[in-house]
Amino acid sequence: MIGHLWLIGIGTGSLAHLTFEGRDALRKAAVILLPQKGPGKDDLAGIRTRLIRDSGSTARLVRFDYPERDPALPYQIRVSAWHDEIARRWQAALAERPPEGPVALLVWGDPSLYDSTMRIAARLDPAPVLRVVPGITAIQALTAAHAIPLNTVNGPVEITTGRRLRDHGWPAGAETLVVMLDGEAGFQHLDQDGFDIWWGAFLGMPEQITEHGRLRDVSTRIVERRAAARAEHGWIMDTYLLRRLPDGVPAV
């Protein structure tokens, strides 16, 4: 049984992204659950363990194997079954030696933005007392890397996924679009002359790479750099911002 569960946002890879509140939570946690995501993803585990070490935490570390999603299932059913299995693995990992204080999980980015850790926590029975410690988001890291504001003056911003961009195209009325969780470079399906793009991967890490320009000029280069980086590291986390160009107005 998990009495208190703390979800700590750790940013997008920079050890400096951990907030003072997050550092304090790591020091006060009794147990920290650490996912093992398989070969080729040692960087992710390494960042988590360095954050824990540098925070001065003395928490007991409990590792669990992260499950794979079943590609044969329809998308919504696949994700739901995956979340169920993750919750079971949390509880199984703690069953042999129940925690004697708060259990913490380090969440990449921020627990509230396109992350399902809170949804997984809701599957626990009995339900724990949940604490969420906010973190630097991929969107903040992206705009900082490019030194740009997220929005235009008085302009709206929409946040979506690569899946929705591919399936539904550019949202009606959108001016600025941030795309997350895009494993297939959905921007390739847009009008290549009509948009500017700001793209980044491994944001905040020493491996950080970025591209910016008119979509027609950088689309192919982004796809190529993305594939090469994924082959080199065994994984990639990237996001991008798209801005529609008004008719007759050049990119800024």
From TrEMBL:
Pathway(s) this gene product operates in, as recorded in its UniProt entry: Cofactor biosynthesis; adenosylcobalamin biosynthesis
One Gene Ontology term from the biological process aspect of the record: cobalamin biosynthetic process
GO MF terms held by the record: precorrin-6A synthase (deacetylating) activity
SUPFAM superfamilies, A to Z: Tetrapyrrole methylase
Domain of life: Bacteria
EC numbers for this chain: 2.1.1.152
Protein name stated in the entry: Precorrin-6A synthase [deacetylating]
